[in-house]
Amino acid sequence: MRPGRRGSRPRTRRRPAHDDATPGFVTAVDRGRYRCLADPGTGDERGVTAMRARELGRKGVVVGDRVALVGDVSGDADTLARIVRVEPRTSSLRRTADDTDPFERIVVANADQLVIVTALADPEPRPRMIDRQLVAAYDAGMEPLLCLTKADLADPEALISEYAPLGVRYVVTSRGGDLDALRAHLAGRTSVLVGHSGVGKSTLVNALVPDAERAVSHVNAVTGRGRHTSSSAIALELPGGDGWIIDTPGVRSFGLAHVEPENVINAFDDLAEGAAERCPPLCDHLPKEPGGLGGRPPSEAGQSCGLDGWVAEGHASQARLDSLRRLLASREGDAE
Ligand SMILES: Nc1nc2c(ncn2[C@@H]2O[C@H](COP(=O)(O)OP(=O)(O)O)[C@@H](O)[C@H]2O)c(=O)[nH]1
Ligand SMILES: [Mg+2]
Ligand SMILES: [Zn+2]
Q1: Ligand 1 center from residue 332 Cα (angstroms)
Q2: Are residues 109 and 243 both part of a single domain?
Q3: DSSP structure string for 165-227
Q4: Residue 32 sits in a domain of what CATH number?
């Protein structure tokens, strides 16, 4: 079991050190300085800049982390608190390794929704990219939401029907249109926005969080580290405290190197049930016919995936199985 997986919260009888520490929520990370919201949800919340306490050791602190703060937690100018503890995570999302960073690293913790922003045109949608983002969401324990932008330029129906078999939730936005449907999906949740350049992410963020630009420049000012690092993430509170959106500028895609197929298939109850009943251990769930999708021969033990039979008996649709296999296969190869 990996740390951070839902339900893996370690039981401990030991009372944590710093019992009287102040709870904080990490909203931005910039070269060793952590921007936190202290006492979130109490009515007394304030922005506090913190550094890591030595006792944290090598433990990473990322945007979305729930932490314990000690020292000067007033949030007054030129004060610095210390992060002494990182609470167990309910989800963790990794970015892919790329030329700026050779390691797949966790960039966001505790988010519960991944908003996959895709333009319907200009730039053209890239279904393979969408598939990979879906896999990242399922693996991270997050619910995906497709946000199809620029509906004033192209009809969303083809793309919507492509994802219909998976039951992925979606919203459609357009220039001059309202964002009510999107707001309804974001309410009360912590959502990560992802999408490549030009799809309209900044346009959405600025419409959803009217002072987003000010918030970002404020982070730069208080951490005193110049421009916010473009590869990082930043959490912005929705108006009225109705949830958080986490923007991920510079993150092109999320890492799939450690994805477990079980985490993906478990997002689909009907297929997960079939896999549990019919598949050999460690089945990759790809089709048995060489030349089929994935082109895999039967597994070495000679047993093949039981999901074809499961579908043939009418327990799940062929379109849904095909879509699941497309997702599983999207893990192979390059990010783009
Ligand atoms: N036609 C149209 N253009 C849009 C829409 N949303 C954003 N844009 C434009 O698309 C371009 C890229 O938007 P931006 O928000 O900067 O995308 P980002 O790179 O994902 O942050 C800008 O010129 C926006 O004005 C939309 O719904 N319809
Ligand atoms: Mg942008
Ligand atoms: Zn199988």
Answers
A1: 30
A2: yes
A3: GGT-EEEE--TT---HHHHHHHTTSEEEEE--TTSSHHHHHHHHSTTHHHHHHHHHHHHTSSS
A4: 2.40.50.140
- Do residue 298 and residue 187 come from a single domain? no
Burial (CB < 10 A; 0-12, 13-18, 19+), residue 102, is exposed
Task: Tell me the pTM.
Answer: 0.86
Residue owning the nearest CA to atom 1 of ligand 1: 150
Here the tokens at position 222 are: 């208080």
Residues 243 and 148 occupy one common structural domain = yes
Distance, CA 200 to ligand 1 centroid (Å)?
4
What tokens does 182 get? 């999107």
Closest CA to 162 of 323, 330, 327: 323
**Number of the ligand 1 atom closest to the C-alpha atom of 176:** 27
**The pLDDT of residue 3 is above 60:** no
Nearest protein CA to atom 13 of ligand 1, as residue = 200
Pocket lining for ligand 1, CB < 6 angstroms: 149-150, 152-153, 173-175, 195, 197-203
Per residue in 12-26, pLDDT (tens digit) is 555 557 888 999 999
pLDDT for 292 equals 45
Whole-number Å distance between alpha carbons of 98 and 193 = 19
Q: Which of 302, 300, 292, 301 lies closest to 328, judged by CA?
A: 292
> Which atom of ligand 1 has the smallest separation from the CA of 206?
15
Rounded distance between C-alpha atoms, residue 286 and residue 296, angstroms: 7
